[in-house]
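anyone else get weird line breaks when pasting these?? whatever heres mine. first is seq + tokens for prot A
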Amino acid sequence: MINWWQSIVLGIVEGITEFLPISSTGHLTVTEKLMGLPIDDPSVTAYTAVIQVGAMIASIIYFWGDIVRFATAWFAGLRNADKRGSDYRMGWAIIAGFIPTAVIALLAEPLITGVLRSLWAVVVGLIVWSIAMFIGDRVGKQNRGEDSITVRDGVILGTLQSLALVPGVSRSGATITGGLLLGLDRVAATRMSFFLGIPTLIASGLYQAVKEAKHIADGVGWGSTLLGTAVSGVVAYVSIAWLLRYVSKNDFTGFIIYRIALALVIVALLVTQVISAV
């Protein structure tokens, strides 16, 4: 169903948009529609989730030093209370953030593969969360660094991360906005978005790969899926490095403007019937 050049294009789209607060699912959905793919087909839905694993592998490689540091501190803190510092708390924050996301995702699965696959849902998600991002970027005090993150922060951000089940909201957009509203600075909020995304999207991708293995094999094909996953990983690594440099010197206004412009373009395509909503 998806040939090699389509997989490369979709992998590039996924790699660029996964970590930027502009909605990777929204971009993939629009791109798939422009390619004439049936976005409500189970194999296409599974493909969209599975190729995210490539981006997550890129983030693991990029943040490997941080991951090892958090894991080492977490295990050390379990054995010795005197070693329970900020890295130990970060370990718990990531674990605590993953739990609500996983639970909500499992409960909302019928919506993810059903009504939320509409491009109108993408439009609503893009516009509504653009407003939320604008508020977070302007109202957030940004007086907290990464070493101040607590388990409570993890739970709140993990819960907000589940809003990305609505295409157009953006997983990174949801967690970054939440982090800003909790007082984190832009770099800390962005890095926390990466750390929460690693277990979340790997679990989601592997779950879809196992659950929809037959659909992928009979529909999209594993060759195309693995190609898209590999391409997304390479592109995502570059995207991560760029985003962290960008947020260290800029606010999120450019992303907000882009999101609203994209929503208007999608509306125009839908109204003129260039593409259909589902």
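and prot B, same format (seq, then tokens)
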Amino acid sequence: IKCGKKAMLLSLINNIGLTLLKGYVGFVGGSKALIADATHSFADIICALFGSVGIRLSNKPEDKDHPYGHGKIEFMVSVFVGAVLLFVSIGIISSAARVLFSNRSIKPPSPLTILVAAVSIYANFVVSHVTLCAAKKLNSPALKAISTDNKSDAYSSIPVLVALIGSQFGFAFLDPLGGIFVGIVVAWMGSKLIIEGYKGLMDTSVDSEIIKKIKM
């Protein structure tokens, strides 16, 4: 259990550190892609914090006003966080698109942004491995989800790294294009959370394949 708590704390510290590092270097180095990637890491922090609050509140026992318990809170939080992510993604995409489709020439970002993107990919892979190890020892779905999230962050940062490298070789348009890509990834995350939360709030039936397995 102590190992699991350390793994969750490590994941949170990793996301906070990468958000600050990528945000600062992206702003100073003039990279829309890295700023968007920093926003992606910040979105993970929001998801983790609201998720933990939602789980804690949903585990409260039933009372006079809530005879069926507080389980729906978790789904409400999921919809709220998803809506926030969608709002953030619109800002990311519109900001990068303005640069991409403007008549002004696009300046390539600082070479330092490449190093920061590479560090981000490496750090997320390491944290993913550590949390997966803890998840297996504790048989924890929550930790496994965090591990998967960190791994997906690493994979989504790879196109950002490619865009930043390409921008140094005369393809400066790849930087805002990378920002749009990250914005789409964040929008996908938000949409998924909203759909899952909606299904929970509306008590949607489980998948037919699961029903078949239960009957068997």
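btw re prot B: The chain has a mean pLDDT of 80. The longest helix spans residues 72-100.
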